[in-house]
Design brief:
The chain is α/β, with parallel strands linked by helices. It has two domains: 29-121 and 246-318, Bordetella uptake gene, domain 1 (D-Maltodextrin-Binding Protein, domain 2); 123-220, 3-Layer(aba) Sandwich (D-Maltodextrin-Binding Protein, domain 2). It has helices spanning 3-15, 40-56, 71-79, 92-101, 136-145, 160-172, 184-192, 203-211, 259-273, 276-284, 297-318, and strands spanning 29-33, 60-64, 86-91, 112-121, 123-128, 150-155, 176-181, 198-202, 215-220, 247-254. The strands form two sheets. Strands 2-1-3-10-4 form a five-stranded mixed beta sheet, with helices on both faces. Strands 7-6-8-5-9 form a five-stranded mixed beta sheet, with helices on both faces. The longest helix is centred in the C-terminal third of the chain and has 22 residues, at 297-318. The radius of gyration is 24 Å and the shape is globular. The N and C termini lie far apart (72 Å). 41% of the residues are buried.
């Protein structure tokens, strides 16, 4: 190549149009649900993913990757490219309790970016229908006078209810005999059969049995009453503030994802949660729409970190480990 032709080639490169960066998103987005199909977290992920498809203009494909308290699927997102095309549905169990109990290969607070909260639901403490105490205060007194601790069903080591019993027990001085189950359904069946004294699960799973008189509701583990069952007291109203445990679900993406992609995903989530049709479907599942502040990455991230700082020391002090 002559000197003249080299100069001409360089000039052509300088004046060539610069290729525009692809707008985000320009292809389908994968939404990892770290729990099996058919469960409540899966249902929330599919509902929100379906609605966000309309907002993003690209398909949102659900990928169930369950195991180890939600840490298997979450680890999959931690290994994905930080390009905004692989999201994770996270909730209190997977992103606070599971992260502390299972010692996963990622830092749940620092290896992900929050997108926004999807919904929040209440956990409810219930007892078998024939338990003598009528209020939570009476229940605590009754438990202190028994020679044997009351049985309490938990769903897995390090689950929210499992951790909560240690906090509540430390506060009140009562003891529980923990009975582990592999899922909520068998624990509910044993409650209905009178083989278990107490449990705490998502309120939507328990409310039909409470309303039918087959279980006794003692308190919601939340700071405010539940719109669907406004007659059930909160822990604070029952005289035991400080151990509320609102059960949230939200979206996360890998750390390093561009601010543009995070903003686009958040906008799609906020638009989806404003849709009356989606709001009704979430309400039918016993979920509440989070505040506008907690729909933001900053607000959701603050809630996530606050719950980790509140519950992780208790998990460590109680020496809760994988079964």
């Amino acid at each position: 190549m002559t000197a003249r032709s080299l100069v001409l080639a360089l000039l052509a490169l300088l004046h060539a149009p610069v290729a525009a960066a692809e707008p985000y998103p320009s292809r389908p987005v994968t939404l990892v649900v770290p729990f099996p199909p058919g469960g409540p977290t899966d249902a929330l992920g599919r509902l929100v993913g379906e609605r966000m498809t309309r907002s993003l203009g690209q398909s949102v494909i659900v990928d169930n990757a369950s195991g180890a308290g939600g840490t298997v699927g979450t680890a999959k997102v931690a290994r994905a490219a930080a390009d905004g095309y692989t999201l994770c549905v996270g909730q209190l169990n997977s992103h606070v309790f599971g992260a502390a109990v299972y010692n996963p290969p990622y830092d749940v607070l620092n290896d992900f970016e929050p997108i926004g909260m999807i919904s929040i639901s209440a956990l409810m403490m219930v007892g078998r229908a024939d338990l003598p105490p009528g209020t939570l205060a009476e229940l605590v007194t009754w438990m202190k006078t028994r020679p044997e601790p009351a049985t309490f069903a938990t769903v897995g080591s390090g689950s929210p209810a499992h951790v909560w019993t240690f906090g509540f027990g430390n506060t009140t001085g009562v003891r529980f005999q923990l009975v582990p189950y592999r899922g909520a359904a068998p624990s509910i069946q044993d409650m209905l059969a009178g083989r278990i004294d107490l449990t705490a699960l998502e309120a939507s799973n328990l409310l039909p049995h409470v309303q039918a008189g087959k279980m006794k509701a003692y308190a919601l583990l939340s700071a405010k009453r539940w719109k669907i069952a406004p007659d059930i007291q909160t822990m604070g109203e029952a005289g035991f503030p400080g151990y509320e445990m609102p059960f949230w679900t939200g979206l996360f993406v890998r750390k390093g994802t561009s601010l543009e992609a995070i903003a686009r995903l958040n906008a799609a989530l906020v638009e989806s949660l404003a849709d009356p049709a989606l709001q009704k479907r979430l309400t039918d599942l016993g979920q509440e729409i989070p505040s506008a502040a907690e729909q933001t990455p900053q607000g959701f991230g603050a809630r996530h970190r606050a719950d980790a700082e509140k519950w992780w020391p208790l998990i460590k002090a109680a020496n809760i480990k994988i079964e």
